[in-house]
Amino acid sequence: MDQPDQPPARPDPAAMFANPAAIDSNAGDFRSVLYTVDRDGRRKWIYAHIVQGAWRRWRQWVSVLLIGFYLALPFLTVGGRPFLRFDLPKRQFWIAGQVFWPQDFNYFLLLFLIGVIATLLAVALLGRVYCGWLCPHNVFLEMVFRPIERLVQGDAFTRARKDREGRGGAGRALTFALFVLVSGALANTATALFVGTEAFAWGLVVDPVAHPAAAVFFAFAFVLILFNFSWFREQTCTIVCPYGRLQSVMLDPHSLVVGYDQRRGEPRGRLRTTGGDCIDCKLCVAVCPTGIDIRNGNQLECIHCSGCIDACDAVMTKLGKPAGLVRYTSEIELAGGRRLRIRPRTVIYALVATALIGVASWRILHREDIVATMLRPSSMPVFADNGGVQMVRQPVSFSLVNKTASEHRLTPSLPAHPDARIYLQQPVVVVPPNQRVELTPTIDLPAAAFGPGDLRTTLLFVREDGQRLELPVLLRRP
Ligand code: SF4
Ligand code: SF4
Fold first, then answer.
1. What is the distance between the alpha carbons of residues 69 and 76, in angstroms, rounded to a whole number?
2. Which domain holds residue 423?
3. Which of 31, 94, 95, 184 has the lowest tally of Cβ within 10 angstroms?
4. Which residues have C-beta atoms less than 6 Å from ligand 1?
5. Residue of 403 and 357 predicted with greater confidence
6. pTM of the model
């Protein structure tokens, strides 16, 4: 009797490193098959080797700076004001000590456009430098979480063997405990960017009673970070990240990529029996955090982390051959051509980015110090008698946003109607620095000032230093 089909055996990771030929370099199908998913749709776990080399040392320095900057961000101030803070309840967004309000959305739009163009320029020139060197996902995964794993459980070969044999439970538990601690620290920093460090006892524990929304955010960020770094890992780059998916349209043959020099390396073969420099040791595949074989050519999964460059350079050095069989290069250079740094698209991107930066700088430098906005009135106008003169009485609601670091005092008036009266608790409106105040004065205006319908006029605020701020208002007729 026929036996039911058995699922194909999963690759044996331990055997993989013991026998380089067993490393699946997905050579036949690499354009259409995701390396980390097997034919049954199951996840293939990547045991990435860590090879120390010149590029990794540079990345470590960059990562130390980035991680230090990220952890310090909630504590950084400019002139006593937060360097970066997203204060949602107060609707204040602090960037480099400057406060922005929802009314400043146009600045964020400009910043977003600058970011898009700068990204296009950076990719056209430097390829996926952001992914491999600057992206928080890869910085933390490659420089914090994976090294912790290696420190506790041993190198990739040992971990693969223990997993295969079902051993190493204690090591995995300790690793997970350390991941929990690190994820908690990262989630703390993310939460502090929204609520400030004041919400944390000893900078560590958010008070859930005083800051319930922050506690929910912390829990969400913590679970997401822990899930991402302990399990999801390279799938963030290969499946989720839209930036990664757009690489194919942003790169061109002159862009910097990590490439394998096929003309030098092929025909590949073990121990230099076939003429090419590649000895098919597959160390470049074993170190790859996304599991691809760079010798197949440029691929969407490649985050340009330079791990395979360090790995192959170490092999070439041992063989007494020049480094650079795998290197930072461009497709045009690999094909024997010359790489052009200045080309039409880079010039256009640079011009557009410069123009946008110019516009944004000009707008920020000429930003209004105080912004007045009309609000919906809370009640309807009525007629009132004032010494025999019929008046129209109505509340007018408006907000004043002070975007400066100093307090301002403003005196309101209706210059077009000297006989109007504005009733406020204080004749002068005080707006504290970086704050927003809402006011609803009552305005009395002779009914004769109205025509057959409503009246459009201007509310004038004169600042203590003489600066004038005009706010168009619509006064309704009862
Ligand atoms: S590390 Fe270098 S020599 Fe080894 S397989 Fe990769 S390209 Fe070939
Ligand atoms: S192919 Fe090389 S550069 Fe690309 S992700 Fe893998 S190790 Fe990094």
1. 9
2. 370-475
3. 31
4. 260, 265, 278-284, 295, 311-312, 315, 325-326
5. 357
6. 0.81
